[in-house]
Amino acid sequence: MIGGSTIEAELAKLKPPVAAEAISGAEYQARMDKARKLTRDMGAKALLVGAGASLRYFAGVPWGASERLVAMLLPVDGEPVIICPFFERGSLEADLKIPAELRLWQEDESPHALIKQAMSDWGGGVIAVDPALSFEMVSRLMRETGLPIQEASSVINGCRMYKSSAELALMQQAKSMTEIVHRATARILRDGITTTEVINFIEAAHRKMGAAGNSFVIVQFGHATAYPHGLPGVQILSENDLVLIDTGCYVQGYTSDITRTYIYGQATPDQLRIWDIEKEAQAAAFAAVEVGKPCESVDYAARAILEKHGLGPDYNLPGTPHRTGHGIGLAIHEPAYLVRGDKTLLAPGMCFSNEPMIVVPERFGIRLEDHMYVTESCAKWFTEPQAAIDRL
User: Fold this and answer.
1) Whole-model pTM?
2) Would you call 257 helix, strand, or coil by DSSP?
3) How many helices (H) and strands (E) does the chain have?
C-alpha cells in the first residue's frame, strides 16, 4: 500500500464521485433569518458581511475580498442589499443565490455612501460588522458614514459554526475525495521522488476527482516532519523516511483537511512508540466529545494521554505544540477551537479537525488528522483514522 505503483497508473484509476446536492434557496433564506435574529439580539439594525466565506455562506457569492468593497447589508427587517462595483454587475448576478436589491457604485464613487443611504432608508441604527472585514474597510465605514458599529462575531459564528445536513454532505464528499487521494499518493512513492513531484500529483489527483485542485498541500519527508508546517526547499525521499502529507480540496466551497503520517520502509522503535501514542491521543479526543461540554475538554483529553506516556506537559516538547483541533467548513480554520481556554459548548452540527500532533524536536513529527462532527449522542468521523504506521 506504500509504493509499488506509478503516477500514471494511479491517476488513471481516479474518477469523480456522485456529487452532493448544492445548498438550496430555502437554506439560504433560513441562514438569513437566523442572522437577522442574532443581529437584533445584539441591538443592531443591520448586518454587514464582506466578500469572503461569510458572503458565500449567506448569499452564495464565492468571491474573495479585495480593495473594492463587495458586501451584503442585511437589515433585521426587510430584504438584503448587495453593495458592489457597477462593472461587476453581470458576474454578481450570475453568482448570487438570493433575491436582493443591488446598489452599485462607480470607480470614482464611495460604496460607503450607499451603506449610509440604505441605513437612512431603514431609520438608522447600529451596524453589526463582519469580523473578517478589513481594518481599512471598517475605518472608512466609520469615517464616511458616522454610523455606530459593533463587531458581529456572535452573529457570524452563531450561524456558521453549526452545520446543516446539506453542509455535512458537501463536507463528507470533500473529505472522502481527499482520503482517496491520500491512498493513491502513498502508492506512487519511490526512492528519489521529490516533494515537488508529490505535490503536483496531489493537485492532479484532486482535479481528476472533480475538485478545482488543492485547497492547500504540505508534503514533508524525514527530518522535515518535525516542523508542523514543514521546511522550505525541495526534499528527496529515501528508504526508511517518515512521510507526512497534509492536504485538502473544496467541494462547493466546503473544504477537507486530512493528514497522514507513515513510514516509507521500516520504522524505528521510537517512531512506532510515538505513532501509537498519537493514535491513542486522537482516539481519546474523539471519545471526549459530548454535547454540552466545553471545547477545551477535548484538548485536555488528548494531552492527558501524552502526559501518561511522559510527553509534554502542556506545549512542551516532545509533545503537542499546538491545539488539538479547529473548526472547519467554508474556511479551513474557523471557530470554535479544541484548545484550552475555548469554553464554547459542544453542540450538534459542529465540525472539527482532530490532530494532536506529537513533535520530537530535530528528529521527527507524527500528525494524524481526521475530521469529526458532533451529534446529539457522540462524535462521528467523516473519515476513518489511519490504521497503522505502515499502511493507510
Assistant:
1) 0.95
2) coil
3) 11, 18
- 148 and 276 part of one domain: no
Q: Which three cell numbers, joined as nine digits, stand for 357?
A: 500532533
Residue at a domain's end among 159, 192, 211: 159
Q: What is the pLDDT of residues 15-49, one digit of tens each?
A: 999 999 999 999 999 999 999 999 999 999 999 99
Are 231 and 340 members of one domain? yes
**Which stretches of the chain drop beneath a pLDDT of 70?**
none
| Dihedral of alpha carbons 190, 194, 197, 203, sign | positive
Same domain, 79 and 212: no
Distance separating alpha carbons of residues 88 and 65, to the nearest angstrom: 14
- Specify whether 145 is located in the same domain as 178: no
Could you give phi then psi for residue 255, rounded to 5 degrees?
-115, 155
- For the four alpha carbons of 165, 171, 172 and 174, in that order, the dihedral sign comes to positive
Dihedral sign for Cα atoms in the order 55, 56, 58, 59: positive
Write out the residue range of the structural domain in which residue 275 sits: 162-381
**What are the pLDDT digits (tens) for 85-116?**
999 999 999 999 999 999 999 999 999 999 99
Question: Given this model, what pLDDT does residue 354 score?
Answer: 98
Which helix (H) or strand (E) segment holds residue 173: the answer is helix 165-188
Domain end among 94, 127, 159? 159
